[in-house]
Automatic annotation (TrEMBL):
Residues 1-445 form the Biotin carboxylation domain. This is biotin carboxylase. It comes from the Bacteria. SUPFAM superfamilies: Glutathione synthetase ATP-binding domain-like, PreATP-grasp domain, Rudiment single hybrid motif. Pfam families: Biotin_carb_C (PF02785), Biotin_carb_N (PF00289), CPSase_L_D2 (PF02786). Keywords: ATP-binding, Biotin, Ligase, Nucleotide-binding. One of its GO terms (molecular function) is ATP binding. NCBIfam families: PRK08591.1. The keyword Nucleotide-binding applies. PANTHER family: BIOTIN CARBOXYLASE, CHLOROPLASTIC, PYRUVATE CARBOXYLASE SUBUNIT A. It is an enzyme of class 6 (ligase).
Length: 445
């Protein structure tokens, strides 16, 4: 095992990583910005070091400072969490060059999967189906038009460096494509520092289904089942569930096989997620991207398999081998993202001070959070207050437990999305499990 772990993140994921490390007996060092002074993760770690001012660029994204803190505090490994530097190949390489372990895949693997156009090419080579579209990033509008003519409109223009649901534009015909091409490029350059874009057919009725994989340093890749993340707003996940209500046993096995193949094609190491869209009109599944980090919704897989995925990230980083057989999956689970947002007014972020924070408990309930009464929700970071994870024997039990748990959840001082989830659980499409990725936007309209 590593000697000491630097946790290069904040919020609920920093808390989550520190807890896993402590369970393994690994001492931790937390980092924080001025806005996070006194935050839970700084208290749970063995030591905490201030990085600087609140803006992430001046604190959590300061690679030089993080490497310096790791060295000064005797950390021989760095866990990046999600967001921030978690998918930055340059940071992963610098950590390794400094003689420490980056808890994640090798820098080259992050680089391939972080470029969505390159990732498409890599997995297509091993016969994992990708959404029809351009074979690579397009260098001009005529190439984009040619690719669109081949796969048919509507198409999505996607930033190859995109993430977080940003950097996507739908074009319904050639005129629209020509009109938005330059803008899409400029937006990509502005948001991701890379103006590379590619074309994908825009599928109208899809479910987002992703497969969790774990890969050790000895060449073994296992799959741990899928999560369905079709409840989305602006291409961002709002509720996730597992297993997917849209897959039968055969399709589930096919998808798992594709995910393992995709991971193997790039020599994957660590915890990763292979994302697919399932076309509800044709039944086809297509790879869309791979996330080379722990994901927000990882607890769904944990409650179904009984594995601690963050602990496994650390064990894999330390060289431990995976067991041959993936564990069986038990029951059904749903995760509700509780955000500090005013969902009745366009989901505007609602920073402020929590006066009440009283999460539910009881059978089948897990809440991953960094919040407590008095915590200040800063406008500088994402608005996630915590995640309510509900586990049960079957989907019906989960729906009943979720209603009960949400009715117990007290948040005051800031707006939260608890009420949105309560409303969703009264909707027939949600109860039946038939919603697609467009459902939430249309239901709210
Ligand atoms: P990001 O990296 O920003 O999360 P993704 O490529 O994972 O972007 O896509 C995010 C979401 O956008 C998907 O979950 C899905 O809802 C939607 N999406 C992506 N590609 C397509 C597509 N070709 N057709 C329809 N919807 C898509």
């Amino acid at each position: 095992m590593m000697r000491r772990l630097l946790v290069a993140n904040r919020g609920e994921i920093a808390v989550r990583v520190i807890r896993a490390a402590r369970d393994l007996g690994v001492p931790t060092v937390a980092v924080y910005s001025d806005a996070d002074r006194g935050a839970l993760h700084t208290e749970l770690a063995d030591r905490a070091v201030c990085l600087g001012p609140a803006p992430a660029g001046a604190s959590y994204l300061r690679q030089d400072l993080l490497l310096h803190v790791a060295e000064a505090t005797g950390c021989d490994a760095i866990h990046p969490g999600y967001g921030f530097l978690s998918e930055n190949p340059g940071f992963a390489a610098s950590v390794e060059e400094a003689g420490a372990t980056f808890v994640g895949p090798p820098a080259e693997v992050i680089a391939v999967m972080g470029d969505k156009a390159m990732a498409r090419k890599a997995v297509a080579k091993v016969d994992v189906p990708v959404v029809p579209g351009s074979p690579d990033a397009v260098s001009n509008v005529d190439e984009a038009v040619a690719a669109a003519a081949e796969c048919g409109y509507p198409v999505l223009l996607k930033a190859r460096a995109g993430g977080g649901g940003k950097g996507m534009r739908v074009a319904g015909d050639e005129d629209e494509l020509r009109e938005c091409f330059t803008l899409a490029r400029q937006e990509a350059a502005g948001a991701f520092g890379d103006d590379g874009i590619y074309v994908e057919k825009y599928l109208q009725r899809v479910r987002h289904v992703e497969v969790q994989v774990l890969a050790d340093r000895h060449g073994r890749v296992i799959e741990l089942g899928e999560r369905d993340c079709s409840m989305q707003r602006r291409h961002q996940k709002v509720v996730e569930e597992a297993p997917s209500p849209a897959l039968d046993a055969g399709r589930r096995q096919d998808l798992a096989g594709l995910a393992v193949r995709a991971a193997e094609s790039v020599g994957y190491v660590g915890a990763g997620t292979v994302e697919f869209v399932l076309d509800m009109d044709t039944g086809a599944v297509y790879f869309i991207e791979m996330n080379t980090r722990i994901q927000v919704e990882h607890p769904l897989t944990e409650v179904l398999t009984g594995l601690d995925l963050v602990a496994w990230q650390l064990r894999i980083a330390a060289g431990e081998a995976l067991q041959a057989d993936p564990p069986p999956r038990r029951g059904h689970a749903m995760e509700f993202r509780i955000n500090a947002e005013d969902w009745k007014r366009g989901f505007v972020p609602a920073p402020g001070t929590l006066t009440v924070f009283d999460p539910p408990a009881g059978p089948g309930i897990r809440v991953d959070t960094h919040c407590r009464p008095g915590a200040v929700i800063s406008p500088h970071y994402d608005s996630l207050l915590g995640k309510l994870i509900v586990h049960g024997a079957d989907r019906d039990e989960v729906l009943r437990r979720a209603r009960r748990a949400l009715s117990e959840f007290r948040v005051d001082g800031v707006h939260s999305t608890v009420g949105l989830h309560e409303w969703l659980l009264t909707q027939p499409e949600v109860v039946a499990g038939t919603y697609t990725t467009r459902y939430l936007t249309e239901a709210l309209a």
